[in-house]
Design goal:
By secondary structure, the chain is mainly α. The protein has a single domain, classed as Phosphate transport system protein phou homolog 2, domain 2 (Methane Monooxygenase Hydroxylase, Chain G, domain 1, Up-down Bundle). It is built from six helices and no strands. Helix 1 runs parallel beside helix 3 and helix 1 runs antiparallel to helix 4. The longest helix is centred in the C-terminal third of the chain and has 35 residues.
């Protein structure tokens, strides 16, 4: 591997580390939720998301001037975008608690947030293996594991939405909760899309 290639893989590792940090902070926010502190939560989460944006911009700048890249620059750009989407979707989730003035947190929301942490941890492991993807013995099993977690999130989404319909509060609260669970589902999907992108890059380059 060329010396300059190290940058791309380190950038991806840093991006997934920030996604994991955002997911862990989401769990912390929900486990200790207070509507009085929601603006502080938003501010802290945005700092993490902004750091992830910086990593994405650094990748774009490097790709714009690179003559040779370890894999196709379009693939590197696609992966950078998909990894950034994970942190964006996590931030969007806590934003929904602010937008809809949520006063308390359902246990299933905390469970969902922990599943997002699990997905982000797997993404971190994937990025640690990605640099050596042609020889890694773990990367395919990690992709499968991430897909399994996404399926668990699908089931949790269905049961959570059903509980809302079985035990409706006022219409506004019910709609707000549905929007929030949509965001959780989007987080899980973003993690899976990132892993699918990695899988595509591997297939094209082995």
């Amino acid at each position: 591997m060329a010396k300059g290639d190290k940058f791309y893989f380190e950038n991806f590792k840093e991006c997934t580390a920030l996604s994991k940090k955002a997911a862990l902070y989401l769990v912390e926010c929900l486990e200790n939720y207070s509507p009085d502190n929601i603006e502080v939560m938003l501010s802290e989460m945005h700092k993490i998301e902004h750091s992830a944006d910086i990593k994405k911009h650094e990748m774009h700048a490097a790709l714009a001037k690179a003559f040779v890249t370890p894999v196709d620059r379009e693939d590197l750009d696609m992966l950078s975008h998909n990894l950034d989407q994970v942190t964006d979707k996590i931030e969007e989730t806590i934003q929904k608690f602010y937008i809809y003035n949520i006063q308390s947190v359902e246990p299933s929301a905390i469970e969902f947030a922990k599943k997002i942490v699990e997905s982000c941890e797997l993404l971190c492991e994937l990025m640690n293996e990605f640099e050596n993807f042609k020889h890694s013995k773990k990367i395919q099993s990690l992709i499968v594991s991430l897909n399994d977690v996404e399926e668990e999130c699908d089931k949790l989404f269905l049961t959570s939405m059903r509980e809302i319909s079985k035990n409706p509060a006022d219409a506004y609260t019910a709609i707000s909760l549905c929007k929030i669970y949509d965001c959780f589902e989007a987080c899980a999907d973003a993690c899976e899309h990132a892993s699918e992108c990695i899988s595509t890059v591997i297939m094209k380059n082995t």
